[in-house]
Amino acid sequence: MSLDREWDSIRPDRSFRAANAGMSILRITLLFGSAAVALALIAVPVLDKQTRSSSRDPLTSGLDTMNTGSVGARATYTLRRSVLQPSPSSVCIIRADGQRSGDC
Questions:
Q1: What is the pLDDT of residues 15-72, one digit of tens each?
Q2: What does the H/E/C string look like for 55-103?
Q3: What SS3 class is residue 17?
Q4: Which of 5, 23, 2 is nearest to 14 (CA)?
Q5: How far apart are CA 103 and CA 93, in angstroms?
């Protein structure tokens, strides 16, 4: 018995199949894809929680939360809200001529 025949009796299929390689690539893709999805499902809520907690505190977020504005061409005024006012809902109205009303 020759060596080739012995090998064929043990392992008859020695040819390369493209289908086997395709399945391997598919398995690897599914493995890394599922890992990426799992990481995204864990990381997004954690990062969202961190950004929400840091945006609530104006001192650490670097955001200026004071609002100003003017309305109309005839009556120009500014609405001012400040942390220095007695209550958070206090509003100070400053007209164009400097007259102040509200909780200034």
A1: 666 666 678 888 899 999 999 999 999 998 888 887 776 556 655 556 666 776 656 5
A2: HHCHHHHCCCCCCCCCCCCCCCEEEECCCCCCCCCCCEEEECCCCEEEC
A3: coil
A4: 5
A5: 8
